[in-house]
thiopurine S-methyltransferase
Amino acid sequence: ADIWSQKDRVVTEEEWLQKWEMGNIGFHKKQGHPLLQKYLDVLLNGRNGLRIFFPLCGKAVEMKWLADMGHSVVGVEVSEQALKEFFAEHNLPYCEEPVPEISGAKKLQSTSGNICLYCCSIYDLSSSIVGKFDGVWDRGALVAVNPCDRQRYASLMITLMEKNSSYLLVTVSYDPNKHKGPPFYVAESEIKSLFG
């Protein structure tokens, strides 16, 4: 496969916002992802009360599922609509406040305090703002990031991880010459070079 066929493809923030506005969100799964259920023990590694990060979270139902197990969930998403739909669909009361370190960003936090979702670009986040995480559930983030931004994304994710973190990553395998993405094709060799 010619993995360079997608390398210059760029999806803008506006295009992602438009997908949410138009309801063109085929990437959203109404049921929890079977791979998270299958590999949950790998993510948790016998630990309780973890801080788990959801990059480009959308309105992922797994956020509530993990929070209900006693974990603290933090997500980031550019679409405020997606975040508000998450809280509405789960009947979760929340409060909203600005994020002083990031111009125009908002933080939506469940009143129970165990789900905190940032509405901003993922690249505006840092460990000084969101802290570090024991686990990451990356279902659709790396494959949604523009290919030219992968190194930047992986570097950021590494800075957000605690030393004994678990990182669950779901990618898709297909012929990149037949689909322009997203989701983008990420070769296993590239995942190894990005995350070591």
